[in-house]
Amino acid sequence: MRKPQLTRAEGLPERVTIYEVGARDGLQNEDAIVDVAVKAEFVRRLVDAGLTTIETTSFVHPKWVPQLADAAELLTALDLPSGVRAPVLVPNERGLDRALAAGVREIAIFASATETFARKNLNSTLDEQFAMFTPTVERALDAGLAVRGYVSMCYGDPWEGDVPVEQVVQVTARLAELGCHELSLGDTIGVATPGQVIDLIGALGQAGVGVDRLAVHFHDTYGQALANTLTALREGVTTVDSSAGGLGGCPYAESATGNLATEDLVWQLDGLGIRTGVDLEKLVTTSTWMSTHLGKPSPSRVVQALAG
Ligand code: HMG
Ligand code: MG
């Protein structure tokens, strides 16, 4: 399989942690409900391709996201090797109870930077979402779990338009204060451009949320995800969310398409000599296999170029 020609560039990290979200952010948005055995095989193949942080599913209300209603069943079906982290999405205490019963060690809560999306995604106001998260995170930390915090609509909202940087900083700082070890900055509808990324990371630094705690989460709706990611790496970020094959979207955000494809990210990082531990060939084979289950081609440009 073709490989990119290696040429290093200044000002970039030596290693990047890929936080793989295909099984969760990807499959939550598919019309088809994928069989639990296929999901388990997908995760097993992702592990075999070298991914070590794999968000597997969500313990949200099954009526809200029926695609992931089999969360507990999936976790029972998985037998992950030690060294693989398998966080799950949890919105509230009920979700935490279900995650704890399934033996989860790591969760991610997900906040909105805007009022409208808090209402649509969590049935809450901006403040109410924190009333939901505070006891959830306290109990999770007491139980020894690691907690990641997502912030959605960081760079634009389909209903509200522009989102002020200060509003994103406030929400992110509140999640940091609650005890989230990592904050993932979500471009939920894929509208960000690199200047915004530089501005937000800078403003968070000023507010005391250092770049070592940040991850970036770009959707690729406007084709900006790789440019935004490279910009974030230059700003010092070393954890990048992406989804195998570019699967994904958010069922409660209009016009959101898939995440940055993991293959597109790995092609760029391999070319720059930045280590990820991922075997691109195995990953492309996995996404091609998954696309036959979903009955549609992968939107990833690298999968399209390399498959077949
Ligand atoms: P609600 O209807 O307000 O819930 O939904 P409630 O607290 O009023 O409870 C109503 C009933 O639901 C109760 O049952 C609860 O027990 C039950 P009843 O007493 O009536 O029998 N319930 C639950 N059952 C199972 N699991 C639970 C749960 N919670 C309550 N966890 C809620 C509020 C937060 C639950 C709902 O809005 C929800 O599930 N939202 C999730 C939406 C979602 O998953 N969106 C996609 C993920 S976010 C995303 O993709 C963005 C991201 O990728 C980053 C980016 O791109 O920006 C992360
Ligand atoms: Mg997302």
From TrEMBL:
What's a single GO MF annotation on this record?
A: metal ion binding
User: Which SUPFAM superfamilies would you find in this protein's record?
Assistant: Aldolase
GO BP term (any one):
L-leucine catabolic process
What Pfam families would the database entry show? HMGL-like (PF00682)
NCBIfam families, sorted: PRK05692.1 (NF004283)
Q: What is this protein called?
A: Pyruvate carboxyltransferase
PROSITE patterns hit by this protein: PYR_CT
Keywords for this protein:
Lyase, Metal-binding, Pyruvate, Transferase
Regarding protein family, the annotation reads: Belongs to the HMG-CoA lyase family.
Can you give the residue ranges of the Pyruvate carboxyltransferase domain? 16-284
